[in-house]
Design brief:
- This protein has one domain: Dehydroquinase, class II (Rossmann fold, 3-Layer(aba) Sandwich), CATH 3.40.50.9100.
- The protein is built from 5 helices and 6 strands; from the N terminus they run ββααβαβαββα.
- α2 runs parallel beside α5 and α3 packs parallel to α4.
- The chain starts with a strand and ends with a helix.
């Protein structure tokens, strides 16, 4: 599996610009969903999560652009791209599951703050019921909203929330 996965559909030249995009960004180790700590993260795979997001986006009148990377700089680049899309009126918002980078990345904090992009910080597990180092987020202070502990179903809830931002 490649370190960086881009969607089948998205915000490229062939995208339907009339339909707002929800950009779903997944950070390190989320490619291991289904096999990594299933008691914590469940048995659904990242492909299952992508299908769930695409279905939720369609149901909410959005287009889904779903990506995963294990590299911090790639997430920063994608957030910069999201800022440009939002400035152009083509982006409803970003759902960001930054994984472990949530707790360590000043770079992600600065990218969100610098672009002004609307971000919903998402966690599959309840990070506050886990190890103490997971209780701090560098993303929360610059996120528009935070969701945690709904399992992978939280992705569909997050898409609905971002759709609400787009229609407000």
């Amino acid at each position: 599996m490649a370190a960086t996965q881009k969607p089948k559909r998205g915000v490229g030249p062939s995208a339907e610009l009339a339909v707002p995009v929800v950009l779903v960004l997944n950070g390190p180790n989320l490619n291991l969903l289904g096999t990594r700590e299933p008691a914590v993260y469940g048995s659904q795979t990242l492909a299952d999560v992508q299908a769930l997001c695409e279905q939720a986006a369609r149901a909410n009148g959005l287009q889904c652009d779903f990506r995963q990377t294990n590299h911090e700089g790639t997430l920063v680049d994608w957030l910069h791209e999201a800022g440009r899309l939002q400035a152009g009126g083509r982006l409803a918002g970003v759902i960001l599951n930054a994984g472990a980078y949530t707790h360590t990345s000043v770079a992600l904090h600065d990218a969100i703050k610098g672009t002004g992009v609307a971000v919903l910080e998402l966690h599959i597990s309840n990070v506050h019921a886990r190890e103490a180092f997971r209780h701090h987020s560098y993303i929360s202070p610059v996120a528009r909203a935070v969701m945690a502990g709904f399992g992978v179903a939280g992705y569909a809830l997050a898409v609905a929330a971002v759709a609400g931002w787009a229609s407000a």
